[in-house]
Design brief:
Blueprint lengths: L3 E6 L9 H4 L6 E2 L2 E2 H11 L4 E6 L3 H8 L8 E6 L6 H7 L1 H4 L4 E5 L2 E3 L4 H9 L6 E7 L7 E6 L2 E7 L8 E9 L3 H5 L12 H10 L4 E5 L4 E3 L3 H12 L5 E2 L2 E2 L4 E3 L2 E3 L4 E3 L2 E3 L2 E3 L4 E3 L2 E2 L3 E3 L4 E3 L2 E3 L2 E2 L4 E3 L5 E2 L2 E2 L4 E3 L22
Parallel strand pairs: 1-4, 1-6, 4-5, 8-12, 14-17, 15-18, 16-19, 17-20, 18-21, 19-22, 20-23, 21-24, 22-25, 23-26, 24-27, 25-28, 26-29, 27-30
Antiparallel strand pairs: 2-3, 6-11, 7-13, 8-11, 9-10, 9-11
Bound molecules: 1-O-phosphono-alpha-D-glucopyranose.
Length: 358
Amino acid sequence: MKLKGLILSGGKGSRLRPFTYTGAKQLVPIANKPILFYAIESLVECGVREIGIVVGDTGEQVRAAVGDGSRFGAAVTYIEQDAPRGIAHAVKIAQGFLGDDPFVLFLGDNFIREGILPYVTQFSRHNPPPASQVLLCPVKNPQDFGVAELREGRLARVVEKPAEPPTNLAVIGIYLFDHRVFEAVNSIEPSARGELEITDTIQYLIDHGHEVKCEIVDGCWIDTGKMDDILEANRAILETLEPESAGTVDKASRVEGRVVLETGCEIINSVIRGPAIIGERTRVVKSYVGPFTSIYHDCLIQDSEIEQSVVMENTTITGIGARIQDSLIGRNVELKGCDAKPRGCNLVLGDFSRVKIP
Ligand code: G1P
């Protein structure tokens, strides 16, 4: 069965401010790779070759990062959404691209470490396929998601972010549909938050007697909406890291555990304790980089200590007295310690920045 892919890469990313003032949330790196790339790779792994990416205000950046898709072995078509009008609205405007083909809808900020091959295989096995197949995952905070209610093992109802969740089963942001979804997205009305909801779309299919299957995901799924989720996804990937060294390490340095040193990085008089990944052309000088840390490309870490953190590209961290922990540090940031008196802090922080100083 030929399946297409539809990835959503728009949205405001308000919960990930300040990073989303200047960048698409789907391009935040996890283990030195934009979140969005994991979605593309998961689709390609299932044999999906035609992928539509729905973009909004940050479309230019997404295009620059993904290109025509050939580096992933896919052909990418960009679909512009004029404003964040909901997931079902994105499906609606992608009808021309999707045509009559069944497809995987993948929210570009959803991260699933083990990929989606078993679920796609399951869907494709049916001929004709069900109208939809949704993936469910037990969570501690179901009120933050679409929530599923099952009756006799079958999906009976889905509700968007209910104050009193009927179960702990979140409907995750990866869905399979066939062409019948268009009848639904063209019939439903915007919700109270003014969006065409994907949960209403699924409910419409159920209410109109179409078959909607569900599968429970066993594996690591994370909706990377907030800073802690990014750090968690980063940890999840680094847990499975295969060591690799394309960088240089001087004699005074120690590299312990599972560490990836990307092309052209330099480790000088430092300790790197894995799992950790050091990006292309990044220099670590007289510093300690501890477990579960990803430093992206073209950074400088000097006379500093950092662990359990993600650092984005072109950032400089020098002479910081305290160990940096559990932190997400953006692009082109300059973080400098200073010995001069008076020992006050000198900060230039953008809106919604968060800093804790010991
Ligand atoms: C969206 C969906 C929700 C789903 C979630 C998964 O929520 O509306 O049903 O559970 O994605 O990530 P949003 O992240 O847009 O608030």
